[in-house]
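Supplementary Methods, section 5.1.

A reviewer requested that the exact input to the structure prediction be made available. We therefore reproduce it here, unchanged from the version used in the analyses.
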Amino acid sequence: MSDDTTTGPTRRDTIKYGTTIAASGLLAGCTDGDTSDGSPESTPAEESDGYSVTMEPVGTVEFDSVPETVAPFTPDYIDMMVALGQADAAETVWYQNRYKTRHYEELPDVGIDTDRLTPLWNDGISKELLYEIDADLHLIDPHSLTHWLDDWPAEDIEEIETNVAPFLGNLIFRRTDEWHDYRYYTLYEAFEKVAAVFQERERFEAIQSLHSEVVAEIEAELPPAEERPDGALLFAGDEPDSFAPYRVSGKGANKEHFHTLGIDDAFEGTEVEGYSGSQSVDYETLLEIDPDSLLLRYHGNKTREEFEETTLAYMREHDVGSQLTAVQEGRVFRGSPIYCGPLHNLFMLERYATAYFPSRFDGELFDRQALADIINGES
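The structure derived from this sequence is encoded token-by-token as follows.
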């Protein structure tokens, strides 16, 4: 960081005050005209040796150097930072237990000390906490605070931007919010923006190439659409008696791996809607629909064996649950993280390819050491 006695603009000053707000207002809701955001991922900042990154809804943020400390919110963005070799720059997380990190155990010398990440939520998100953390960048869609969580007024966003650091980010994990009337990004589109922030184009392209190879291999071996099972995506406890439905057909980043595998939504054409925070379905409703498979979220910290010994064992003993085709045929799976970054995505592609189509996919679909070498800058 620049010394306080520096007379010219400091590195922090350039990041803090170099923001060009999209559509003449951070919280305007949407931008005028084309929202395709066809600008380059990273462009040179005017009259400096720095660069800029453009992402809706904020717009363009200029950097004179790579931020050393970053405050992410949802774990999908932290996973992007880990993938880019920038784990040490992450300072925060929404809730620690929503950040699933088991997949790092399979990657040599890759990981993050989650204990040092400051939880941002404690009956709200405190401005004072962001002052205390004093990050160089808030890797957060500001509408997450003002609209999704309904926790901050616009004035608080502007205050933190002015006195601490800018915001940059886009809520990508789901696409069901009425307030999100600006551009959505796919997982890899958002990942590319984060790579631009950290000037990690080479790492990004290497991981993207590996991902493309895995996707191509899967698509080449998938059975015809009519032979693929459908899936009911649900939130469920350890011994579930009711379930909160989600939709496999949703276009958020946390469902992209299901789409690659061609898993149809078992709730399509039924009266069951997407997750609303209050809707629930029981075993009787599930039995009427009788999905080919069940995908149960909230079990990301369990191994497959632990999941079978607890939740699946309970369902097999349940009077109605035991009648479900998915339970009888063993197609009840952990439902993958709510917030999936690029590394999550690779492991989920492999998990579900081998789980749904064991006769076509077996073992590891990508080289762990090769991926770790990319992340660690050794490839």
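The first strand starts at residue 19 and ends at 21. These observations are discussed further in the main text.
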